[in-house]
## 1
Amino acid sequence: MLQCFETSCLFNNPPFFLKKNLICLFISGFFKQLQVYTEEFRSWPLFKLWIGPLPVMVLYHPECVEVILSSSKHIEKSYLYKFLHPWLGTGLLTSTGDKWRSRRKMITPTFHFSILTDFLDVMNEQGGILLEKLEKHVDKEPFDVFLDITLCALDIICETAMGKNIGAQENKDSEYVRAIYRMSDLIQQRQKSPWLWPNLVYMLFKEGREHERNLKILHNFTDTVIAEKVAELENSKQMKRDTDGNCEESGSKKRKAFLDMLLSATDDGGNKLSYRDIREEVDTFMFEGHDTTAAALNWALYLLGHNPEAQKKVHRELDEVFGDTERPVTVDDLKKLRYLECVVKEALRLFPSVPLFARALREDCCIGGYQVPKGTNVLVITYALHRDPEIFPDPEEFRPERFFPENCKGRHPYVYVPFSAGPRNCIGQRFAQMEEKTLLALILRRFWVDSCQKPEELGITGDLILRPSNGIWIKLKRRPHAGSE
Ligand code: HEM
């Protein structure tokens, strides 16, 4: 539960405590209240809240955010991430200290550009299935596109992370797909409900037992995929040995997944990851790598459907690059889609998929002129940070031009951090941008999108991910001839 607290009892500097009774937070929504307070107290450098027994400093100014994100010391995640541990263990997102440093070093090369390029094929293939599904809505009633996009993103991450095609787009009722969604909901609910924090108490509630059931489904699935992949690798090595007496990996063109690379990655001492370590990382990619991208894509479509002038500019750019062909998107095409890139960035400014994230301070530090003691939990609210009217005038307006290179000059580097920043930034940033641009290019090459909701009808909720709780309702028209506008 969130409550205000008198700073003087915990911290030396007393000016920033909320005088209101914040008990209402659970009635009107945690994120909603954060939106209200960060606006109301925009001129303050920071403020403090209680989440149940947990005191939290709330940051939404670039100078304050920089102190935390640029530091190589404050890399420890807050207590709230503990509820991800049963599912993700202490993988890249949740680990800290030497374990995190060593993992980050081992895993960074798997996101190399040349490897991402291979994944573009998967994005084109799965995007093709999405287009066929969207086709049946052309010139029909408005429909909610949220799930279609999300299942496409899920298929993409499954195939790229595990090398496994789960066909979520065609079979949304798979046990694994359902478990992923239910698990994310349960974790968010637990984070906001301090009475569900102790494990023993949690297990007394039906949510706790459901959590256990879903955990088994998720882990069994990943364990099976890893075991299959190990067997496949052994087989192919054996076949290679049998055919030419050489035990090196075959030079066949089979597409690699992150999992293949994790199986061969070694640390500085030449040690490989255990199967359990690998499961942590694969589960982390599955969790962090699709919901985020799906939300970002949905918001971008909503914004374009709401801003026809910007959509026309995207269409013109697409026509210049693709003419009226429907060929797969290439890396070269992506480089040329500069306006679309600004659209993607501006959509993430207004609707950052991760609207807040938290750290626990490893040592006392000075933020915004105030001494904050070691152990304090710090919440970075990207949603509010990105709406600073001094830096982004008329912050609620969708203006991709804000991200033209000439308009970014001199901007504080920590004023726009949808992928976080500093040593613990998002490792999947380039992957996500590639996926967003590719899917948007595929969709907008073929369709004209109209958004059917006003901003207040979206039902914005921001827990782990910023989502429209009422979905994204759009209408589609087929574009007559690419290049005719
Ligand atoms: C639009 C899409 C995405 C957004 C907005 C996003 C945003 C973020 C943010 C804000 C963080 C920092 C979280 C924190 O400090 O608690 C993060 C971390 C992370 N993200 Fe992403 N992400 C996206 C896509 C992806 C994808 C596609 C992957 C994997 C394929 C991925 C993997 C990760 C991992 C592993 C971390 C932890 C990195 C570390 O601590 O070293 N993300 N992401």
## 2
Amino acid sequence: MTARDSIQTANRKQGALACSALFLMLAACVNEGNTGPGAEPAATPDNATVNYFMTVAGQAAGFDHIGLYNTTCARMGDPTAGRERPPENRESPDTWGMQPARVFDNVYWLGEFPAFESNPGAWAVTTSEGIIVLDALFDYSVEGQIVGGLRKMGLDPGDIRYVLISHGHRDHYGGARFLQENFAATVLISEADWNFINERAAASGDDSGLPDAGLVQFIRDGDRFTLGDTTFNLYVTPGHTPGTVSYTLPVFDNGTAHIAAVWGGSGLAFRADSAKQQKLEAFRQYNVSALRFREIVTAAGADVMLGNHSYLVLADEKNALLARRQPGDPNPYVLGREKTVNYMNVAVACSAAGMASFN
Ligand SMILES: [Zn+2]
């Protein structure tokens, strides 16, 4: 069977199923093309396969996941392509200040305004034993958004017990030290990303925002982390960074239980000038983790996908809908299982397209 026959056969199946089947085939193709010692991937991309996966990804994305599509599929050659430069005055609240919002009984949006794509998101999860903050924002926005946001929501920042870092980029960990110093919060991070941020700080000579090693607890793959009545399932899903953490948690909407998932890092980890083999490896690693987390999300029955940038979850739009919500209206953050899995289908298909572009 030729690759084209496979694609046509696969096209007749459901998108997600076809994607898995094609991934396996694609992995074989990639291996075949690289049998020689140190061989570079062939120069001619398999455009039919790339286009196929782009189409699968676009269909899976729809409107809900367009932010993830734009950071992956739309940037296969350069993960920073088309990215707006943050302004000189990015540390001013004018560029990031955003109202907090209660989005579930136990979950609050505390993220930055999506004026600039790099503006990060953050959440607070309330439990019977205190608050877990999901991502710490920048060192300059943590106090205004996270501490100020909790107060606006009528919560006590003194109840912060943990800050869970999805990955070791400064927009997600930069505020962690502030939360350690002011509230004795323990930082939860994978060991791989802890090493990653420390190595980068050592290499650059800039250790500003590095969390205090005395209040750090490492996340291991498959950990169950419980605070009071709330248990997170944590997974190390390398791709965006060496130790990106993705997870699931229980959320409640007016008492109705849902399962939320968080894919810890959205973009691909290479540069436009990276060697081909490095790019291929970045796509491959991301793809392996995305396939795995898709299985986890499916098995958990997750029907909510939270993310760590506003544009990934359309937090601005959804918070506006929530503010006008009438009794009986749906919660815009509840996507249902199919759309939730579709988030991961975008991640899987876009990284598969990237791999095929080297085939
Ligand atoms: Zn990042």
